[in-house]
Design a protein that fits this description.
about 100 residues; alpha+beta; Aspartate Aminotransferase, domain 1; elongated
Length: about 100
């Protein structure tokens, strides 16, 4: 499990770093313990993203308002990470739309 955590954590972090969103400020990781930090000023926060992810069936935890914690099982596989990343990418797109809607109202 330790080796899998290190390998899959590095894979997850590298894939998250490929996301090109103006909302993302930083990606921090230690094994499979990953934090995605968002910029302020976009009228959305980590709590908004956790709600969107929950609607897609992915449970996460917002911390310090602007950070979302991803903590998958230590036995996760690459195909499972890829499936989760598709959900995260779609959820971040939804988050950006939510921020735009809030700015306009």
């Amino acid at each position: 499990m330790v080796e899998n955590s290190l390998a899959m954590g590095a894979y997850l972090e590298s894939k998250l770093r490929e996301f090109k969103s103006p909302l993302i400020k930083d990606i921090r990781a230690r094994g499979l313990f990953v934090g995605v930090e968002f910029h302020t000023g976009h009228h959305v926060d980590g709590n908004d993203l956790t709600k969107i992810l929950k609607d897609y069936g992915l449970l996460t935890k917002a911390t310090h308002d602007m950070t979302v914690r991803l903590t998958p099982a230590l036995i996760i596989t690459k195909p499972e990470i890829d499936a989760a990343l598709e959900i995260v990418e779609k959820a971040i797109e939804d988050l950006a739309k939510l921020g735009q809607e809030r700015m306009q109202s």
